Structure formats: C-alpha cells, structure tokens
Structure prediction request, 351 residues.
Amino acid sequence: MSLQANLERVLARHKELEAILASGDSSDIARLSKELSELAPIAQKVVELNDMRRELSEARELLEDPDMADMAGEEILRLEKALPALEHEVQILLLPKDEADEKNAILEVRAGTGGDEAALFASDLFGMYQRYAALKGWKFEVMEVSENDIGGYKEATAEITGRSVFARLKFESGVHRVQRVPVTESGGRIHTSAATVAVLPEAEDVDLHIEDKDLRVDVFRASGAGGQHVNTTESAVRITHIPSGIVVSQQDEKSQHKNRAKAMKILRARLYDHERQRLASERAADRKDQIGSGDRSERIRTYNFPQGRVSDHRINLTLYKIEKVIAGEALDELVDALTAEDEAARLATMS
Prediction:
C-alpha cells in the first residue's frame, strides 16, 4: 500500500470511529475508544502533512506572480526543508505496532562460558538493567537469584514493570561478551567471558491459555548455595509445560503458593515469547538481517574494559563510555540506535 493510500486510510478510519462513538451505537465502546485514542496522534500528524503539502503547492503557484515570487521562494525553501522529516515521522507512526511493546517484561540473565568471571559479569549486567530501570522510573522486582561463592550470579530473574518496558529492552536479548582482567586473575591477563540475556514480554491471561492437563507440578525443599537445604518444608516449585518441554523453577519465597505464582508468570512469558519468535521468524524469512531477532545464541555486544568501549555488533556501533553504560546512564544511546535501525529495516520492507 502506497504512503498516500495509507494516509487516506488513517483519516477515513479516524472519522469513522468518531462518528460511531458520537452516536453511541456500539456494544464495544471500550475497544473502539482505545483504537481512537491510539489513532488520534497519527491522524493529527497526517493532517499536518497534508496541510504542509498543500502550502507547498500553493507557494509554487505564487512563483508566477512577480509581486509574490520572492516571498514564495523563501516559503518553498522552508517547506521543502521541513517536509522530508515530517513524511518520515508519519511513516514511522504508520509502521505496524508490536503488540508487546507496551507490556511489562521478565528479565533473565545467565552466566555463560567463563566460570566465576562469567557469573560476575552476569551480576554486572543484572545490576545494569536494575539501574536503568530506576532511571526510567520502572519497578524492578527480583524474582530469583542463584549466586556462586564469590557473589556472581549463575542466573537471575526479575520482573520489570512500567511504561514501554518491553519496547525499550527487547533488543537486549542475546549473548553479551566481556573482555577484562578478572578479579580472580593474579597474572593480569585479559579473559573473555559471556552471559546470556533474555527479555520476555509478560503475558496476560488473555494472551494465551494454558491447559492444566499440560502442566506437571513438582514440589521440593528449597536449597541454598552448594546445595544445602535452607528450609524443611517443600515450598520450592518446579513446573513443566509438557507440550513444549519448558521447565520453570522457583524457590525464593517461603510460600509454595507464591513460588507457584511466580513460576507461572515466567512460564507464561516464555510460552508467549516462543510463539512471538515463531511468528517473527516466518515474517522475517525473506530478510537478510533482523535487529532484535531474540536469538539467545547470537553474540550481540562486547564490553571491553581495558579499552573502555562497548560495541554492538548488529549495528556496528561503538561507545567509548563503558562505565556509563554499565551504570545504566548511557544504555539509551544503544537502545535508541537499535530502535532506529529496526524502524529503517521495517520501512525498507514496506517500500
């Protein structure tokens, strides 16, 4: 569909929704009101674009009038300079929305290759996202942490709640690599380690239905570091989704009921994400590259401490401000660049 056809479609639908809601003749007021509120800012920009195009056309006509030619020429220069940016803004607004963008997220960080150093790096990454969430005004709730003997994280899970959480974090999924001298290294040699990050959109009951018959629930005693039992009641919960083989365990809470609720929240997110990845792979089959494919085995970023740089390999972007990135302060620079690249790629497939 051409850009002009898209513009006309938006304005027609906006007008139709206004008429329906004004008449009160609908049994689905809530859904239509939500659609209208989402469409309104796009329609406003479309009107601005149409107005600017009309002004440009009128200014060009005035060039034929000797008394108005100078003023018309200045107006044409101004409008021709402003028009491409407004057209691009409208094209971005017209891109199909990712229905998960406004959702909360489940963050999972796991140590990869590198032993204790990988676990320390996983802890650093988890802390980076926790600080980033605080800067964004999001709620960051730690769901489970499995530590090693020196304070590193073998794996850690958190629920992040707030506005547009998944939209901002969805490109973080993949393998993050670190190059630095480990605190455990006495010879001063640089080691390379890795940790895996998964950001999953939090699924609601309406997003998917899980049959009880598809679940196997096991309860066991929670254990601490080294495997020692930390309580004498069977409060820990392991839930297996039989059709997919996905297994989720929770043991941080003393209550079996709370652990089961947390495990189900993570299971829903993983199943929802699994279906999203399947659909995304089908849609992207004809594309060479896909930013944010969510492939957990894809090496997406390197943090090189001796050189003070962070490099995102998907967009060939390097920032020489590693401390600010780890502090969460400069993470937006990476997120913004990834978002822009994704928008450009999606625009290219529509043209």
